[in-house]
Design goal:
Layout: E1 5-7, E2 10-12, E3 16-18, E4 40-42, E5 59-62, E6 65-68, H1 77-88, E7 94-99, H2 104-114, E8 121-125, H3 142-155, E9 160-163, H4 171-180, E10 185-188, E11 192-195, E12 197-198, E13 203-204, E14 210-214, H5 219-232, E15 237-240, H6 246-255, E16 259-262, H7 265-268, H8 272-287
Parallel strand pairs: 3-16, 4-7, 7-8, 8-9, 9-10, 10-15, 15-16
Antiparallel strand pairs: 1-2, 5-6, 6-14, 11-14, 12-13
Helix pairs in contact: 2-3, 3-4, 4-5, 5-6, 6-8
């Protein structure tokens, strides 16, 4: 039975990783789950300098999910390189570094700094606000998607995964733009923009007013977008959005995803990603599937 998949020449022992921002850089979860049981660990966003994040409150529960407005708080690339890469290298898994920035120059600084480091892939978070363009996210404009992808590819030594924002009219257009810019793979979806109001306090539940909606509530949207994206491009797709178990993961794989990422489920079940990997194996045994790759896009 084969659970291995290959994305941009990088072999994963199974098609399961963690969604950026839900798993730190693995250290805080390592006592609950064997990181080596995952195909890859995707880190929290890493910027060129430390980011303080947004003011609190910045988390709110919602029906079927949660809103977050963390603001990509992180200690910056130097701390990440010194502390987190050596920790993750203890485990037999691929390291995917999520990269964030407010300008193209920000992204390039991180990508160049990581070029000589022992990491396997880069995931570029283009849902960040582009400060040079009045705050609209890089990922909400097809021209900007193609340009930032091409610029990152010029400087990157590792394969580049572009993480797409769902807050667009046509996800296939953004996917094709990233492919045209030279992306090696795509990941989606990032969070959907949402809002919650505290009716007792008569104020916004989040200090930022809006936040990113994740969890089971977004899964049908995510599956649809992964399906559309996989049909629109020839490069591999990593699917995510509300995956709690192997059944959820299989929907994404059958829609066309080569791999999947587990996010919000990590918060209430730290070993969720490992359980998904085990569940995929159990499904293959039950249904006599010899190769996980035969299920990719089977619908």
């Amino acid at each position: 039975m084969n659970l291995k998949v290959s994305i941009a020449g990088v072999e994963w022992k199974n098609p399961v990783t963690t969604a950026s921002g839900t798993f730190g850089s693995g250290a805080e979860y390592s006592e609950f789950v064997d990181l080596g049981s995952l195909g890859a660990v995707t880190t929290k966003g890493v910027a060129n300098v430390p980011w303080p994040g947004n003011p609190t409150p910045r988390i709110a529960e919602t029906y079927g999910g949660m809103l977050n407005a963390i603001g990509l708080q992180n200690p910056g690339m130097e701390v990440f390189i010194r502390r987190d890469i050596p920790f993750l290298r203890q485990y037999d898994t691929n390291i995917i570094v999520n990269v964030c920035g407010r300008t193209v120059k920000d992204y390039i600084e991180v990508v160049e700094r990581l070029s000589g480091e022992d990491v396997d892939m880069l995931e570029i978070n283009i849902s960040c606000p582009n400060v040079k363009e009045g705050g609209i996210a890089f990922g909400q404009n097809a021209k900007a998607v193609e340009e930032i992808t091409a610029e990152v590819k010029r400087h990157a030594k590792q394969p580049v995964i572009m993480k797409l924002s769902p807050n667009v009219t046509d996800i296939a257009e953004m996917a094709r733009a990233a492919e045209a810019g030279g992306a090696d793979a795509l990941s989606l979806i990032n969070t959907l923009t949402g809002m919650k109001i505290d009716i007792k306090k008569r104020c916004f539940a989040l200090a930022n007013k809006t936040g990113g909606l994740s969890g089971p509530a977004v899964k049908p949207v995510a599956v649809r977008m992964v399906y559309q994206t996989a049909k629109a491009v020839k490069i591999p797709v990593i699917g995510m959005g509300g995956i709690q178990n192997a059944e959820d993961a299989l929907e994404f794989i059958m829609a066309g995803a080569t791999a999947v990422a587990v996010g919000t489920a990590n918060f209430y079940r730290p070993d969720a990603a490992a359980c998904v990997a085990e569940g995929l194996k159990a499904y293959m045994q039950e249904y006599g599937v010899e190769d996980i790759n035969s299920l990719i896009g089977c619908v």
